Amino acid sequence: MTHKDIEKVLVTREEIAAAVKKLGQEITADYGDKEIVVIGILRGAAVFMTDIIREIDLYMDIDFMSVSSYGDGTESTGQVKIIKDLDTNVRGKHILIVEDIIDTGRTLKHLVELFEYRQAASIKIATLLDKPERRIMKDIMPNYVGIEIPNEFVVGYGLDFQQKYRNLPYIGVLKPEIYQ
Ligand code: IMP
Ligand code: MG
């Protein structure tokens, strides 16, 4: 059943599962016998993170970081603030950043620079969703993209609007009256 605030479902639960599985297989093949540190970006990527790590067959550590680049609206503020840092020292480690969505690319630009500064051995990005039309940081190119979506504000499967809707099992677009 679709939530009453949702205008349309953009990516179904089944399509998400298929995309996650495919990404997991690609990641497993690409890293070969390397050990990785998978870093989930809270809170949006929490749902994707727990699913994707179970599709990756490698030795891994997992860790989480919480950053905020958005206020309560649907537009990026351009400011990235670290709310919770890693517990892991990433120096010399192969890092896979797991994000829910790349929009302007500001959040990832900031994180990639931070992990470079901390001397990670390599840094790759896996994102469930990508909105390439919206990119401002043109040099931010995810290594693994689940699904490209058009320029629409979406919720579900971890993604929120004002902290709600993260628990929806699909990706959907809200009815305009909800965010206007
Ligand atoms: P960026 O820094 O502009 O690339 O924004 C990335 C972050 O903004 C993501 O991690 C999300 O938390 C949030 N975001 C971007 N687009 C959406 C959306 O359509 N729905 C919900 N959150 C979004
Ligand atoms: Mg996020």
Structure commentary:
- A hairpin with a 5-residue loop joins strand 3 (60-70) and strand 4.
- The strands form 2 sheets. The protein has a 6-stranded mixed β-sheet, sandwiched between helices. Strands 1-9-8 form a 3-stranded antiparallel β-sheet.
- The mean pLDDT is 94.
- By secondary structure, it is α/β, with parallel strands linked by helices.
- The protein has helices at 13-31, 46-52, 106-117, 176-179, and strands at 6-11, 36-42, 60-70, 76-84, 94-102, 122-130, 144-148, 154-155, 171-174.
- Bound molecules: inosinic acid (IMP) and magnesium ion.
- The site of magnesium ion has 3 residues, from loops.
Count the helices. How many?
Answer: 4
Q: Based on DSSP secondary structure assignment, what is the total number of beta strands?
A: 9
Strand order of the largest sheet: 4-3-2-5-6-7
Beta-strand fraction estimate: 25-35%
Each distinct ligand = inosinic acid, magnesium ion
Question: What topology does this entry show?
Answer:
Blueprint: E1 6-11, H1 13-31, E2 36-42, H2 46-52, E3 60-70, E4 76-84, E5 94-102, H3 106-117, E6 122-130, E7 144-148, E8 154-155, E9 171-174, H4 176-179
Parallel strand pairs: 2-3, 2-5, 5-6, 6-7
Antiparallel strand pairs: 1-9, 3-4, 8-9
The structure holds inosinic acid (IMP) and magnesium ion.
The site of magnesium ion (MG) has 3 residues, from loops.
What are the main properties of this structure?
globular; 4 helices; binds inosinic acid; alpha/beta; binds magnesium ion; 9 strands
In short:
The chain has 180 residues and is of the alpha/beta class. It has helices at residues 13-31, 46-52, 106-117, 176-179, and strands spanning 6-11, 36-42, 60-70, 76-84, 94-102, 122-130, 144-148, 154-155, 171-174.
